[in-house]
Amino acid sequence: MRYFAALREALGDGEEVELPEGSDLAALRDRLIASSPRHAEALARGRALRCALDQVLVRESAQPGDGAEVAFFPPVTGG
């Protein structure tokens, strides 16, 4: 897991998360939201966020494989 822009400021650079096989990024986001109040605020369902899987923009229905890099970030980020 990697976080960028305002998410990195709120949650740090990233973290390692294990998911059950067949989980998608929506399930990962929900799991993170449930993990702490800080995550719940930063990743709330009402917030527009983009996600990437191995540096390719994807929808939350994408399923990460073992060892995949997942990133969450706001829709617009600076350089």
Automatic annotation (TrEMBL):
What span is annotated as the signal peptide, if there is one? Answer: none
CDD domains linked to this entry: Ubl_MoaD
Q: Do you know which InterPro entries this protein is assigned to? A: Beta-grasp_dom_sf, Mopterin_synth/thiamin_S_b, ThiS/MoaD-like
Protein name per UniProt: Molybdenum cofactor biosynthesis protein MoaD
